[in-house]
Specification:
The structure holds 3 protein chains of 3 kinds. By secondary structure, chain A is α/β, with parallel strands linked by helices. Chain A contains 12 helices and 8 strands. Helix content of chain A is about 40%, strand content about 15%. Chain B is built from 7 helices and 7 strands. The chains are: A alpha/beta, B alpha/beta, C alpha/beta. Chains A and B meet through α6 and α7 of A and α7 of B.
Chain lengths: ~350, ~230, ~170
């Protein structure tokens, strides 16, 4: 009798081990194993053509640990981020599904999060969303039922406490999702940016992807404050980078894109990249610019790797997914390690 | 105050197509002080409509009157007299005024001449800005007296989005970022740490999301006649 | 032979500031400078007195053209009356165009009391502009069979603005 009681219980009846991972996603395991993470980004097409996504995904496969799928980015209607995410799951590339507060109220968000998890999606990035006045339906009504910080907390409570936002229990437990949030160190007021990050961490963000970093000195100052507050120990911060395509794009981003700071030095380098290339040789100029853009991006990643508090990079090369591989290789981040399950 | 602006003349002439005798009714309260529907604006619009219709070869008579407050039945009751001669009432009141007229005169066509736009204030002569959306649960105590519901394009409750640049909103570079203003004001008052607290999701049922709203004050209602 | 048509003499009203344009018109007269005889001058204490409502009502009552003549910029006796008038004239011009009238039928000019010659010149120029545009397509309210529904909004006189009475010449304002 005693023996029976003392005998180890059959495996099937053993108490479930504490869940080792929140989501079990590749990105989470990569971060848990202290690897310098690399994420990429895919913009779904303005059509229902799944092949567009498959082709872009093929360019990122093996180069990134997970790929973000934008959610009607810049408020332009595109193939759904969750549907795109499911296509990626089927293909074997891990998606980070982006979700904005602009287009959904809390009912739709939770419903879609459950749906995403059911489709095998394991990472979600919680965003406010660009204002619809910038997109192709400027007359649309925006939602903003909850904001991105409230959304982070909602997803965390769904996952960790198995509760809907209203407090009702989710039968069968919450969706296993790694929770991401965005940070823009270059928006104003600067002093408030680190505090806003702290709020996202307090709300339950597991990882942060930043806006494109070009202004290293401002970013360094930002990261210093992040480290001073110890936030880097509570959340995995991935710095946003992206290759410049041309001198014109560099100038445009410097002068026209809100929340973006591009130092003149980079603009000058892009302009100098076509020195000696005949103006009429469009192809050669394009290649020279792109090569320089990739070079700058690689240098930036190398610099960011040395920065205290960073756990990875998020490479945004929308409509230029071919650039991802040379960047990852050039930065010495290829091949990607395989974390333990 | 409620701030409104006149609809374009072309929209009004299309709306009034077929009418021959119209009564334009102004309001002496909010829309008078925002120069959209007071005595003078009624005069200008009526004159313009008469001229436009005369040029179209479809003359229309537009009579003019302005009541002190279009949103209360008592003030509009005197309009009943002589109303029969008009095909329609063109209200230069806010949306409430239009509906008060429509409720009081159920058989009359009542048409809006204004686009009621917001609750706000004049920031300088000739400029009005929105300050309140009547969301039904005021948060000005925690946001330093600056309303993120009416002044943030995304109605954020936990600080500025990534589009705030140089103190301005990403939607319009002439519009200040509400959260920049909130931050500056609380910082100046030594209360900036209040912004670190996470504000939970709002209960929007107090806003229009809860359906048409109603306030009942039992202390002010008239006693039922049987008790008098 | 065809019967000669009566030449079109445009009906033009000029709202003139007492401190400058009205005196300039006087000077033009005493200097025997010719300006269109059909110009109907209304003396105002300042063009800042001009209101959009009066500008529109004047057209509604059948004028072909309307001149607002105020002091030179910076020389208003009430500091900025002429600048306000300019803004209102611009605003009224947009109304006229929305209504379907040519905006050129309304014009603001700025003069000093000494500029009699310029007054005559600008008034003549205005008359030429209106002649080329032709008579106001509105006709008069009376011709249109409209019953005026209100009196003069400016002074409360039961007669509409510019009715055929002393009122329409601006007397007693």
């Amino acid at each position: 009798m005693m023996d029976q009681l003392l005998a180890p219980a059959p495996a099937a009846q053993a108490p479930a081990p504490a869940r080792r991972f929140k989501s079990g996603s590749n990105l989470e395991r990569m971060l848990a194993a202290s690897h310098f993470a690399v994420t990429g980004e895919i913009g779904p097409p303005k059509s229902h053509d799944a092949d567009v996504i498959r082709k872009k995904a093929a360019l990122l496969e093996g180069c990134v640990d997970a790929a973000n799928i934008t959610d009607n980015q810049t408020a332009v209607v595109r193939l759904s981020s969750i549907a795109s995410g499911a296509i990626l799951v089927a293909q074997g590339l891990e998606p980070v599904v982006q979700m904005t507060c602009r287009d959904r109220n809390r009912l739709a968000m939770q419903s879609d999060l459950l749906g995403a998890a059911a489709l095998g999606i394991r990472n979600v990035l919680c965003l406010t969303g660009d204002h619809q006045s910038h997109g192709n339906h400027p007359g649309a009504k925006n939602v903003h039922d909850i904001d991105s910080i409230q959304m982070v907390r909602m997803v965390k409570e769904m996952r960790d406490e198995g509760l809907f936002q209203c407090g009702e229990e989710i039968s069968g437990g919450g969706p296993p999702l790694l929770i991401g949030a965005a940070a823009n160190p270059f928006a104003d007021p600067f002093e408030l940016r680190v505090h806003r990050l702290a709020k996202k961490v307090a709300a339950g963000a597991d990882f942060i992807q930043t806006q494109l970093v070009f202004d290293m000195s401002r970013f360094r100052e930002y990261m210093k404050r992040v480290v001073d507050l110890g936030l880097h120990e509570k959340v995995a911060i991935l710095a946003g980078v992206g290759p410049l395509k041309s001198a014109g794009m560099a100038r445009h981003m410097r002068d026209k894109v809100p929340g973006m700071v591009v130092p003149d030095g980079y603009v000058a380098r892009m302009e100098a990249a076509v020195d000696g290339v005949a103006a009429e040789d469009k192809q050669a100029r394009r290649e020279a610019w792109r090569a320089e853009g990739i070079r700058i991006c690689i240098e930036q990643i190398r610099e960011l790797r040395e920065m205290e508090g960073l756990r990875g990079v998020h490479i945004m090369a929308i409509e230029w997914e071919e650039a991802i591989r040379p960047i990852v290789e050039g930065a010495g981040l290829f091949p990607r390690p395989v974390p333990e399950a | 105050m409620i701030v409104a602006k006149q609809k374009p003349l072309s929209e009004l002439t299309a709306m009034l197509d077929g009418y021959r005798n119209v009564l334009a009714v102004g309001c002496g309260t909010c829309v008078t002080v925002c120069f959209a529907g007071g005595v003078k604006e009624v005069g200008i619009l009526a004159s313009a409509l008469r001229m436009a219709r005369r040029l179209d070869g479809q003359p229309m008579s537009v009579a003019e009157t302005t009541v002190q407050r279009q949103c209360e039945a008592e003030y509009i009751a005197p309009l009943a007299e002589g109303l029969d001669e008009f095909d329609a009432i063109l209200s230069l009141g806010c949306g409430v005024g239009v509906q008060t007229l429509a409720e009081r005169f159920p058989d009359k066509r009542v048409l809006p001449a204004l686009d009621t736009t917001f609750m706000g204030l004049p920031t300088e002569q000739g400029v009005w800005e929105e300050r309140c959306q009547g969301c039904g649960h005021c948060v000005l105590d925690i946001t330093g007296g600056i309303c993120p519901v009416s002044r943030c394009a995304k109605q954020l409750m936990n600080g500025p989005c990534g589009g705030s640049q140089g103190g301005m909103c990403e939607v319009d570079s002439d519009t200040p970022c509400a959260w920049q203003l909130i931050w500056e004001r609380l910082d100046r008052q030594g209360l900036a740490d209040r912004l670190l607290e996470i504000q939970p999701p709002r209960d929007w049922s107090t806003s229009r999301d809860g359906g048409p709203r109603r306030i009942v004050r039992d202390d002010l209602r008239l006693p039922p006649p049987e008790d008098v | 032979m065809t019967v000669a048509e009566t030449p079109f003499e445009p009906k033009i009203v000029a709202f003139c500031c007492r401190h400058c344009a009205y005196a300039a018109a006087d000077l033009a007269g005493t200097s025997r400078l010719a300006y269109p005889p059909s110009l109907n001058i209304v003396e105002l204490p300042c063009t800042g007195r001009v209101d959009v409502l009066e500008l529109l009502r004047t057209f509604e009552d059948g004028v072909d053209g309307l001149l607002v003549a105020g002091c030179l910029p910076g020389r208003c006796h009430y500091l900025a009356g002429n600048l306000h008038a300019r803004q209102r004239v611009d605003y009224a011009q947009r109304w006229l165009e929305d209504i379907g009238l040519e905006g050129e039928r309304l014009r603001m000019i700025n003069l000093s009391a000494a500029m009699g010659a310029q007054f005559a010149e600008l008034a003549t120029e205005m008359a030429e502009t209106i002649k080329s545009l032709g008579p106001s397509p509105l006709g008069t309210r009376r011709a249109a069979g409209e019953i005026p529904t209100t009196g003069c909004a400016a002074c409360g006189d039961p007669a509409p603005l510019l009715a055929e009475s002393a009122h329409d010449r601006g007397d007693g304002r």
